[in-house]
């Protein structure tokens, strides 16, 4: 006991050091042994899937709404094909909108390809093998991009106007024939060059009318 402890009256705790002893452990042995698996006693799907009630909609959750006779189905009915005489073409047509899309798109892509080939040949002819490869490639690409879009855009505009005229004439005449195509081609060609004077209008009208007549003949021979 120290002097401070005697003045304050606090008793000092006696510390005893004892050796640490490990608590006794009880060793338990597991005597469980699994039973061997017998495949003959296993249950298959048919034991709980009854064919008579497996696909009964009334057994489903009510929130699904499948147990009622008020199901709404999304029905997509294709539009009826055009029934005008002579309306059959390379692709099934449901009217003037299909003809406009098919005709304009096909004509534009065809003319764009031909114009690109024209520009490629022109660029190769204008350049010489002695030119630097970069300069020659640049000249060829300039020719391709100049001729291709020019021919594609021009043919696309003519085809769009032609299909509008052709569908309008066919609607009022009640049939599609070579006369419709030739008249529509003549009007389309004349309208395309209407700002250049009478002579360019006549030349363009004759060219487009001839192309339309050729297409009408091919369609009659191949698709009818």
From TrEMBL:
Pfam families: Tim17 (PF02466). One of its GO terms (molecular function) is protein transmembrane transporter activity. Residues 12-27 have a biased composition (Low complexity). It is a multi-pass membrane protein. It is found in: Mitochondrion inner membrane. Keywords: Membrane, Mitochondrion, Mitochondrion inner membrane, Protein transport, Translocation, Transmembrane, Transmembrane helix, Transport. Component of the TIM23 complex, at least composed of TIM23, TIM17, TIM50 and TIM21. Essential component of the TIM23 complex, a complex that mediates the translocation of transit peptide-containing proteins across the mitochondrial inner membrane. This is Mitochondrial import inner membrane translocase subunit TIM23. It comes from Lasiodiplodia theobromae.
């Amino acid at each position: 006991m120290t002097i401070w402890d005697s003045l304050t009256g606090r008793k000092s705790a006696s510390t005893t050091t004892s050796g640490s002893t490990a608590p006794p452990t009880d060793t338990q042995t597991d005597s469980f042994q699994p039973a061997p698996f017998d495949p003959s006693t296993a249950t298959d799907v048919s034991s709980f899937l009854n064919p008579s009630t497996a696909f009964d909609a009334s057994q489903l959750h009510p929130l699904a709404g499948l147990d009622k006779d008020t199901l709404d189905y999304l029905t997509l009915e294709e539009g009826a094909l055009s029934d005008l005489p002579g309306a059959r073409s390379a692709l099934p047509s449901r009217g003037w909108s299909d003809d406009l899309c098919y005709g304009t798109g096909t004509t534009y892509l065809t003319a764009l390809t031909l114009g690109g080939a024209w520009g490629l040949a022109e660029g190769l002819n204008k350049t010489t093998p002695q030119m630097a490869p970069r300069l020659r490639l640049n000249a060829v690409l300039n020719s391709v991009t100049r001729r291709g879009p020019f021919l594609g855009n021009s043919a696309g505009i003519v085809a769009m106007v032609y299909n509008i005229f052709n569908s309008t004439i066919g609607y009022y005449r009640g049939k599609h024939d070579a006369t419709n195509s030739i008249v529509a081609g003549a009007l389309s060609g004349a309208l395309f060059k209407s700002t250049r004077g009478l002579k360019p209008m006549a030349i363009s009208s004759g060219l487009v009318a001839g192309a339309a007549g050729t297409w009408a003949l091919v369609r009659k021979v191949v698709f009818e």
